[in-house]
Amino acid sequence: MDTTRVSSTAFDGTPQAPAAARRFVRQVLGEWQLSHLTEDAVLLTSELVTNAVVHAGTGLELTCRLDPNAVPTRLEIEVDDHHPTLIVPAAESPPPEGMATSGRGLALAGMLADAWGVTYTGAAKRVWVRMELDKGCGHESASGIPATKAASIAASTESLHVAVIVSDLDGRIVSWNAEAEALLGWSAAQVAGEPLADLVAWRRHGPCALSLSDTLGLGRWRGESRMRHRDGDLLPVYISHLRTDGRAQDRRSIWIVVSSDHRYVLASPPAPLKREQGGRIKDLLDHDMPLDELLDTIAQIVQLSSAADAAYVLVRAEGGNRFGVAAGTGATAGLVGVVTAGVFGVERQAPVMFEDLLATDVELAQRLQARSLVCAPLVVAGEVTGYLVATAAEPGRFDQALTASLQHIADQVAVTVQRERLAERDRAHRGRLSFLAEAGELLAGVHDEELIAALTAQLVVPKIATWAAVYLTDLAGMTRLAHVWHSEERHNADLRQALPVIPRSALGEVTWPVGPESVLSFPLLTQGRSHGALVIGRVEPTLPLELADLLADLCRLVALNLHTAMLYSRQATTSRVLQRSLLPMRVAPMPGLESAVVYEPAEEGAHVGGDFYDLFTVGDHWCFALGDVCGSGPEAAAVTGLARHAVRLLAKENYTVSDILDRLNQTLLDEGEDGRFLSLLCGELTPLPQGGALCTLASAGHPPPLLLRANGEVQPVATSQLLLGIDGDARFYTETFELLPEELLLCVTDGVTERRDGNRLLDDDDGLTAILSGCSGLSAHAVAERIRQAVESFATEPSNDDVALLVLRATTALRAGGQVGNR
To answer: Is 384 strand, coil or helix?
Structure first.
């Protein structure tokens, strides 16, 4: 007795067909007492019908078929359309880069069904899926007949007969072996030349099913049927069909036939199912896979099963009642971070459908670019941990039956998602700290805005984005494109050309160029001020909440560094302007003398520090000064400016060298610069008729100047007196000597004499004297450079003190003018 159950219906190929198909399958499976399979079957039906509506667009016939006599029991769902020329491609398993809604075949069928396939005829196409019911679970078969032990055990090989039947192009039998006679009772003589169709009770359901003649025309086919025994009974058999190649008149159809009890000979019996019916999605997702892949797969299942334009997985943000996009597929809008609204809440523990989202939440509808929305909560231990969401552009797309299917999916995946997300959150937290630490270390101490922009772009590409661009906003509010970086460097020029160099609107309102990537913008904000934005392009349509939080933290770090760089640049500019006033604009040329100056502040980026120099004319003679303020940096520079300008002013007023030191000493004490002592070498030069100059100088606590004679002898020419700024009663005296032609005077600060290499100083054992003694015959410039190199090379570590030196070399009186050099 054939106990196969079949139920069919027809639909127009409209967007409403999937919803009607879901209702039909629910009703049929309820009547067949297969409620435990309903939700999985509804998901598969949604995909089959949606596929037919999208790709065929013709009328559809939906057929449900239950075969309780098969081992195991089979439920088949078939969708027939009338567009046979459109081929359904096979879905890859597993899909390496996620399932697409077109061009990738039937993804859900490949994942959830035990088998699926496509059958073509001249006028129609049938797509079918098969679900096998586990007979070992102790339940009754769908027909109401208890499953027998014999049905699940392969028959004895003692009764095995393998019939081989060959038919010609017209379907007439040309060969019939002895096993065929043993199996069916007919002798070869009785069936020779007879139509094979007379011996086969071929079953077909619906107008699109294959006929026996169509099947004989196939290259290969396997399946079950019934053949007539000589005693008149219909014998259940399993057939393996093969059609030979060659000329049409020579082609043959070869059938290898066994009884259904021995089908395992031609087709291996299916492995026993170990899952509960209705839990196929849970079984699929219980396999180890990365969280991103897990969430993407769930989103794609939601979209495919609901025929939605887009689908999302929302997860609850850490430490709050907000929900953010973790994955999305379909016509998504590149959503970022939190999408909390009244629709989603921690108190909602039942699925809900909105026929027109505009009537409920206009902002959310605009953000999702959707009118219809259905969502189901992910509930774990009584707590809402997220949502599954399906959306459509037009209102009224979904029905209440879909909410039940969506909740069925949510119930199966909730625990898996929460478990994997907690594990991923722990891994992401460690990775996040490591990433931010790396970024902080890379950006630390960088005071150049352009370099910060370049480093920021390279931090996120390719780890987070395919490309990145950094916009910077200056103090005047002008925003410009500072840097772009693409994972494939050859695209950098094209990317820069595609992006606006100077946006005409606020960065949050810019319409970014449309391309293969989703474009997202993150503001660079700190202390209420915008320093620009980080713009990224990602292949993925959505940005997981964890990545959105990570990028927000990175942008705050970058903004803080930009703010620091801005303050540094402003301070450096101010310092440069002020410090230029502390150095002489130029050194006065002196007839009969060459001069050279080396000046190197210890503080990086500074133009002036605690050391200073000056060389200027007063009437018929020249004055020079070389000083060193205790300490360095801006505070020392302030005293430097006071001292240099005071010396120049007093000299212009024709004060003597000793008077200049006396008055400057008193000025420093009057200013109250506690602890700011000053060493100063001050002198004047008066040209001599025979060449050279008469030098009058005084040293207030300064390293004594060295005189290099023409014969190479070196001698100090001044006595060090009390430092300036210590004692108001101190009085200073001068010393005089002649600087003859070809003789040279070297004046240095303690940055030269006290240059340190471990415990050794450069001037230990008259080291500076030894260096100068080897400079006979050199110009002032050459001597200055040799001393500078000696100071620099004395130790591997850079000097931590300001370095200043002044070289004066006498020439003949016939020179028209002096030569001056500066460093």
So the answer is: strand
